[in-house]
Amino acid sequence: MIATRPIERLNLATLLQQESALQRSLVEDFLQCRTTNLVDLSKIKLNSNARQISFIDLDENLLVLVRDAYQTQTVLIPLSQAVKEALSSFRISLQGSFYELPVAQLNQRSYELYQTLIQPLEEKQLIQPGNQLLITSDPNFYDLPFSVLWTGRNYLIENYQILNSLGGQTTEASPGISPVMITAITDSSGLPPSYPDGIDSSIEAEVQNIEQMFKTSVILLNKAFQADSFLEMVTKEGFHTLHVSTHGVFDATSRNPYLYAWDRKVPIAELNQALLQRSPLNLLVFSACETIRANPRAIIGLASSAVQAQSRNLVASLWKVDAEATAKFMTEFYNQLRQGKTPAVALQAAQIQLIHSDNEMNHPYYWAGFLLFGVD
Predict the structure, then answer these.
(1) Mean pLDDT in residue range 279-301
(2) In this structure, what are the phi and psi dihedrals at residue 158, rounded to the nearest 5 degrees?
(3) Domain range for residue 218?
(4) Would you say 40 and 167 are in contact if contact means Cβ atoms under 8 Å apart?
(5) pTM for the model
(6) Are the C-beta atoms of 301 and 30 separated by less than 8 Å?
(7) Dihedral angle at the C-alpha atoms of 228, 333, 311, 245, nearest 10 degrees?
């Protein structure tokens, strides 16, 4: 939290620098390194449709900085005990099997947060539907999926493209999404005892759908998904997107997140080191992974890994999403990318498709967990 000072004495440039320094220190602490390739938030170039929103906790108030391509404006929001309790209650709602929570009840809780965090920005016309929102929030808000906030008529993701960021990267990725490297485990026979139970048939459908859309895909499936060969393939320059569909955990209690290959666990640190031997990826996707577990420190870990690996964009989930819903989400997400859409537009379209489905998958549990960290 940034030290509290009278609002009239707060310098916007200084605040942005402080916020950027905080983000950088959190990442460097997680990675146990002294420097990263993060740049100051104020130096991220915005297009005319983009709005960078920084939520800064000043203890009794929440200072919101809204920056467009030309200027930065501020909104001061009182952080009453009721607001803090609403935020805490909503976080608790997202833990465990919250698909059992009625949609109306979940929407009511998220509506209170929308009224506090987003509606004041709309009323001042600092943001408007159709904008792309680049959210660089205080650690207290890392585990809040803004896409699920209920506006009273629809979900926030239906009005805005939403990205999350700890800052911008200084490297430029290769143009385009294709070719795609796909790594997945879809067959439970012969797996080591340490591999988590449960491989849903939907994962195979997900892989097949992506493969059909991108004929030049590089695929490591089941027994071919050996840790050493995977890490060697990752160093090659023949693809711009890496899609990983296997169990994995960014554990909030550990500095050693990992994913499962066929023969062993692959520490994310090893994957990052392999990725550093090649030009930056445009997109890194963790699918079928219990990646973040809705914990602020784990979210820092996930974003830190993207920073360390120099991936321009990263997609993962806040919780272990239903496999069938994940397959449908990923299929539409890649379909949008194939049409030339940016990851932010593609993610929005994929979530909206599930929201408008006529079955249980319109519940936020099935779609709201997917987060995009990036600059597109």
Answers:
(1) 69
(2) -75, -15
(3) 180-374
(4) yes
(5) 0.86
(6) yes
(7) -20
3-state secondary structure the chain: CCCCCCHHHCCHHHHHHHHHHHHHHHHHHHHCCCCCCEECHHHCCCCCCEEEEEEEECCCEEEEEEECCCCEEEEEEECCHHHHHHHHHHHHHCCCCHHHCCHHHHHHHHHHHHHHHCHHHHHCCCCCCCCEEEECCCHHHCCCCHHHCECCCCEHHHCCEEEECCCEECCCCCCCCCCEEEEECCCCCCCCCCCCCCCCHHHHHHHHHHHHHCCCCEEEEHHHCCHHHHHHHHCCCCCCEEEEECCEECCCCCCCCEEECCCCEEEHHHHHHHHCCCCCCCEEEEECCECCCCCHHHHHHHHHHHHHHCCCEEEEECCCCCHHHHHHHHHHHHHHHHCCCCHHHHHHHHHHHHHCCCCHHHCHHHCCCEEEEECC
Final residue in a domain of this structure, among 169, 198, 213:
169
Strand order in the sheet with 265-267: 248-249, 258-260, 265-267
Question: What does the alpha-carbon distance between residue 161 and residue 294 come to, in Å, rounded to a whole number?
Answer: 21
Percent of the chain topping pLDDT 70: 74
Distance from chain centroid for Cα 336:
17
**When comparing pLDDT for 154 and 59, which is higher?**
154
Place of tokens 């009005």: 159
* Angle at alpha carbon of residue 163, lines to 160 and 168, rounded to 5°: 140
Question: Which is more confident, 272 or 330?
Answer: 330
My answer on whether 77 and 204 are in the same domain is no
Q: Are residues 164 and 240 located together in one domain of the fold?
A: no
Last residue of a domain, one of 169, 195, 217: 169
Q: 185 and 155 share a domain?
A: no
pLDDT tens across 295-308, in order?
555 566 566 666 56
